[in-house]
Design goal:
The complex is a heterodimer. Chain A is mainly α. Helix content of chain A is 64%, strand content 0%. Chain A has eight helices and no strands. Classes of the chains: A mainly alpha, B alpha/beta.
């Protein structure tokens, strides 16, 4: 539901973009199912729904395209929860994780060292 | 780690990671056999000191099953490496592997991705190489702010000037080619003009583009498909919108033959009043009105006459302003001719007094046109006069006619009236046929030219009388 809301524009271009345009490599039969399964597997002792949903969203946003994140500003999700879209946009564009491979690996390697 | 990207497979990943980590970069498509691939992966894990293995896969050329196989081989040999590391306890570097999936936006194929239980982290990085202009800046509000911080207008102008000029359909002559060449060479040397152009375009962008312009680009599939990255698409969007307004402004200026006038004045640094007057006119939105111009494309804007080499700023605009009253003036004359009392019985034409009254009325009306009241026009009326001659002689053939028409008008009007722009126009509206006939005569009998010159130098007053007819 959330995935559909963030990837669907409201208004005239409602049918032009779908989940595959924002989440690169999205497969309706596999992606969400495998994500939830894997997240449950990773967090064996911490199975409250809210934190699992949050983590799943984070991992989905990691594979989002930058144009898809901009489109989210006019998505159905933006009508229902504009604050969430603003926060997702801010974290996506300010994290530096999606800028280029060097910045991404630098952040990743620094985090590993910590 | 699995990285999805829209970057090209030929992106030089190694060079951009050189300072960060030692890496072995391979392209999956270069391997002919599984054994070759296996050897290479073994080399990374077991022989080399590199810390990162990068395997680039173009999804349009490589079968996805091959990528899955490569991933399997990497995992298999990595396990061996970790076992070895575990046994040795120390002295072995931390190694990582990364598969880069080069994706083509337009590709609609399914099953070309890994699910989340594949055991590898996944991320999308639109462009692998660091963008010259940071994406965050493009995300921050208005186009105006982006341009002010990372996309200098001067750069756009330099790159797009020729394209903008080629949107103007000049007459197919050698002069036009020379003219375009002159503008391309000369415009970049006029910082004040560039700055004024820039301010006008930035003001327009500020007033007419939404803060959410990025959304427009992100929602246009055609634009996204055409560019290698979203940032490139955003940059291109700005470039297109800016060059659109450069082209429109240049077209408006060229249609008024005003551009070369300024460039010549500034180059000679001759008359600062005229230069100021030019900029004053340029900043008037009623004079340089681009609202109704179509969007530019090569040869889109035709120039019906000109471009002329005008000496006085925006003289063509002033000529057109006065000429707007031509029909009205001629109708007035016609009405006066219908009344017998207005006709001079000796000549059969309107009497001088009647014509003088009619002209006076128009003079009063036309002198209210703001541009005609400007001091610069009064001071440099001789330049306007030259431009008027250039304009009227443009339809009369070669340069020789241009040289002859001046003395012919001077002979008819006298020096004082000749330099009165309204008189010059009204005379041409009613008596151009006489001047053209005299011109043809002068072409047939060149000796007449000397007589004309003598007439002019002898006495103007006689011709004043004639000029009222």
């Amino acid at each position: 539901m959330w995935v559909h809301q963030i990837s669907t524009l409201h208004g005239a271009k409602a049918n032009e973009f779908n989940e595959k345009d924002i989440f690169i490599g999205f497969d309706e039969e596999e992606t969400i199912q495998s994500l939830v399964f894997d997240q449950f597997k990773r967090k064996k002792n911490d199975i409250d729904d809210e934190s699992i949903v949050k983590k799943c969203k984070e991992r989905l946003i990691a594979i989002a395209s930058s144009d898809g994140m901009v489109r989210a500003r006019q998505s159905v999700l933006n009508i229902r929860n504009p604050q969430e879209v603003i926060e997702l946009n801010n974290s996506y564009f300010n994290s530096g994780l999606h800028d280029d491979i060097e910045s991404f690996l630098r952040l990743l390697l620094n985090n590993k060292k910590k | 780690m699995i990285i999805n990207t829209f970057s090209n497979i030929n992106t030089d990943v190694k060079s951009c990671l050189d300072l960060l980590v030692t890496c072995q970069v391979d392209k999956l498509s270069t391997f002919k056999t599984e054994a070759q691939l296996q050897d290479r992966i073994k080399h990374f894990w077991l022989d080399s000191n590199d810390e990162l293995l990068v395997l680039q896969c173009d999804l349009s050329t490589v079968n996805f099953r091959c990528i899955k196989l490569a991933k399997f081989i990497i995992e298999q040999i990595r396990t061996k490496y970790l076992e070895k590391k575990w046994k040795m306890k120390t002295g072995m570097p931390v190694k990582n592997a990364c598969i880069i999936l080069h994706i083509h936006r337009e590709q609609k194929a399914t099953n070309i991705s890994f699910d989340f239980i594949c055991g590898w982290n996944q991320v999308t990085i639109g462009t692998l190489l660091p963008e010259e202009k940071n994406m965050q800046i493009f995300m921050q509000g208005k186009i105006l702010n982006v341009m002010n911080s990372v996309l200098p207008f001067e750069e756009f102008l330099e790159q797009e000037l020729l394209w903008c000029l080629l949107c103007i359909k000049y007459p197919s002559t050698l002069e036009s080619v020379e003219h375009i060449k002159y503008l391309v060479d000369e415009i970049p040397q006029h910082p004040r003009f560039i700055n004024v152009l820039k301010q006008r375009i930035l003001k327009w962008l500020d007033e007419n583009t939404s803060e959410n312009w990025q959304l427009q680009v992100a929602s246009d599939k055609k634009v996204l498909y055409l560019h290698s990255s979203f940032t490139a698409a955003l940059r291109s969007y700005i470039r297109i919108i800016v060059r659109k307004y450069i082209a429109k402004l240049l077209c408006a200026l060229e249609r008024l033959s005003a551009l070369k006038t300024l460039l010549n004045l500034e180059r000679k640094n001759s008359n600062s009043d005229l230069i100021e007057f030019w900029y004053q006119m340029f900043n008037d939105n009623d004079i340089i009105n681009i609202e109704n111009l179509m969007d530019p494309k090569p040869d889109r804007y035709s120039i019906t006459n000109g471009p002329f080499n005008m000496k006085f700023p925006f003289s063509l605009y002033i000529i057109k302003q006065i000429n707007n009253y031509e029909k009205l003036y001629l109708e007035d004359i016609k009405m006066l001719e219908e009344n017998e009392n207005n006709i001079d019985k000796d000549t059969g034409y309107l009497s001088n007094n009647v014509v003088a009254d009619c002209f006076e009325r128009f003079q009063n009306i036309l002198s209210k046109i703001p541009t005609l009241k400007h001091e610069s026009l009064k001071k440099e009326i001789n330049l306007y006069h030259k431009d008027f001659l250039t304009f009227i002689s443009s339809g009369l053939g070669d340069n020789k006619n241009h040289r002859l028409i001046g003395p012919l008008l001077l002979r008819r009007l006298g020096k004082k009236l000749n330099l009165n722009p309204i008189r010059l126009h009204t005379y041409w509206w009613t008596k151009s046929d006489i001047i053209i006939s005299e011109l043809q005569l002068a072409n047939v009998c060149p000796s007449i030219i000397n007589e004309i010159n003598e007439d002019i130098s002898d006495n103007f007053e006689d011709f004043k009388k004639i000029s009222w007819i």
